[in-house]
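User: Structure please.
Assistant: Input sequence and predicted structure:
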Amino acid sequence: MALIDMVVEEIVKIPLESKDKPDVLRELVQILKDAGEIDDFDTVLTAIQEREDKQSTGLEKGIAIPHAKSAAVSSLKIAIGIAPDGIDFDSLDGEAATLFFLLVAAPDQSGPHVEALAEIAKLARSNSFCKALVRADNAQEVVELLKGE
C-alpha cells in the first residue's frame, strides 16, 4: 500500500501543540492512539524515543521523520504533524522542523517502512510542496495536497 493511500484526516494534526522534541514525539504517537491505529501507546513511544536517542531524525529543510519498529503494530502506521512556527528537533541543518512524519512498522516488515521513507524523501525534494503543506489550514487540506486532489 502506498504511503499516500494511508493518509486520512484522523492521522494528521495541524498545528501541533508541542513546543519541544519530547512533546512532539508524544503528540505524534497520541495521534495514532486517538485514530485507533495503535493500542499500546507506551511501547510505541519508547521505540520511537530509543530510535531518536541513537540519532536525530530531524533532516533538513524543516522535515523530521521520527520512526521505529515495534511489535506493538502489525503493519506500517503513520502520523503527520505540522508546526508552522517550527520546533527545534536537532535537525541536520540546525533549522527548526515544521513537517513531521512519524512511522512505526512491525519488526518483520522492512519493505513498507523503507518504501514510506523513500516516498517522504521524494515529497521533501519539492520546497514549494513542503511550503504548501506548512501553510495548510486544516487536516483535510493536508490530505488533499498529499493525494494531489
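Residues 110-124 form the longest helix (15 residues).
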